[in-house]
Design brief:
heterodimer, A: 51 residues, mainly alpha, 82% helix, B: mainly alpha, 5 helices, 2 strands, 65% helix
Chain lengths: 51, 189
């Protein structure tokens, strides 16, 4: 899952360097949403809540 | 106006290098056998989110939206780093997760980096004439093709991000990473 986040970010950088802003934005927001989801997952685990 | 754009462009390159330095340092620490925890990896993801916005500025032109990308990444990273600092704030001296650099744990440094970035972006956005306009050619010295350090730093960022993706997969595999990893998933831990 964490590798997927970094993979999406690397892909986003590739799209930026190739001047494909739409695709880069898509990968950026997907990776940020996954980062937030994983963070929430970790935080709720510590509270004894399972997502 | 052109001078403002040059200043902003050069400061974006500087911010990119400053954001890459802790990521390279973290990889060096990882190479010594100190494996990153899941929150540490998420902080790195926050730094790469910041970097994507900076590379957009360098490659596609200085735009408020690109600063927005970076600031969104910095806010997410700051939230994650704050949580980790608060998790360990009551630990006895010498406690906390992982080693220290200049007396601070890496997650505390991550929080410092995100806060400094947000403060720096506030300054960057205040530079007179520091933003480009759509359809307008960038000022001389503030364009991708005329700025070798910008190109080198951007490709270095891509390489570091790809290495992180491979290492994260080697450490955690496709599932959840253990809170206190003892070895790489790919080597059977």
């Amino acid at each position: 899952m964490l590798a997927l986040i970094f993979g999406l970010q690397a892909l986003s950088l590739v799209f930026v360097l190739r001047e494909k802003k739409g695709a880069a934005s898509g990968c950026f927001w997907s990776s940020l949403a996954l980062t937030l989801f994983w963070f929430a997952h970790h935080a709720t685990d510590a509270l004894g809540i399972s997502l | 106006m052109a001078a403002g754009q040059r200043w902003a462009y050069n400061l974006n390159v500087l911010a990119l290098v400053c954001m890459l330095a802790p990521l390279v340092g973290a990889l060096a620490v990882q190479a010594t056998g100190d494996l990153p925890c899941p929150l540490c990896l998420l902080e790195r993801a926050g730094m790469f989110a910041v970097i994507i916005g900076l590379v957009m500025n360098l490659r596609l032109g200085l735009r408020p939206a690109h600063y927005g990308f970076s600031m969104a990444g910095a806010l997410v990273g700051m939230a994650i780093a704050s949580r980790q600092v608060l998790l360990h704030i009551n630990d006895p001296p010498g406690g906390g997760y992982g080693g220290e650099v200049l007396g601070l744990h890496l997650y505390t440094w991550a929080l410092v980096v995100f806060v400094c970035f947000l403060a720096g972006t506030a300054v960057l956005l205040m530079i007179p004439g520091g933003l480009g306009r759509a359809g307008e050619a960038p000022a001389e010295g503030a364009s991708w093709h005329a700025h070798r350090p910008a190109r080198v730093a951007s490709y270095a960022a891509l390489a570091v991000c790809a290495v992180n993706a491979l290492l994260a997969f080697a450490e955690c595999g496709p599932g959840q990473c253990p809170d206190d990893p003892a070895g790489y998933w790919i080597f059977g831990r």
